[in-house]
Amino acid sequence: MNTAILYMTQHGCTEKAAIELARLLPGKTELFNLYKVPAPDLNQFDTVIIGGSIHFGRIQAGLQKFCNEHRGELIYKNLGLFICCMETGKNAEAEFENAFEEPLRRHAIAKGIFGGEFNLKKMTSFERMVIRHIASVRESTSRVDTEAIQRFAKQLASVAQAQ
Ligand SMILES: Cc1cc2nc3c(=O)[nH]c(=O)nc-3n(C[C@H](O)[C@H](O)[C@H](O)COP(=O)(O)O)c2cc1C
Question: What pLDDT is recorded for position 92?
Answer without folding.
Answer: 98
